[in-house]
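Table S2 (text version). Query chain:
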Amino acid sequence: MKLIGWGLFAALLATPAFAQNPRYQPDPEWRAPAEAQARENPLAARPELAAGGRKLFIRNCVECHGRDGAGMEKKHSADLQLSLVQQQSDGTLFWKITNGNAKCGMPSFSKLPELQRWQIVLYIRTLKP
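Corresponding structure-token output:
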């Protein structure tokens, strides 16, 4: 019985690893212009709006990045929890959400209203490994 319990426990621990993208490598050519990098999030002083960003993330981003933002290997999507993503400026993340990266399969979300894209940036900031 204990063996089965430990086996189940180990399987549950390993399950998220299958959904993650441990081989994620950023596209070195996908860089926001300096003016976009310097943009500040107009919602930065309102962290409570990240809850709305979460809803938008679930509606628009989960399909590729997973519920926890860890990315999906089969979709080659970014692990948004990684420090190399989290260290990017809000302006950079906003630019990437807005413009997408067709080469890597990231669609543009420019059709979302600007403040909603900023809310998604707020939510991405809450993602932790």
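Notes on Table S2: The first helix runs from residue 2 to 19. Helices lie at 2-19, 34-37, 50-60, 62-65, 83-86, 90-99, 114-124.
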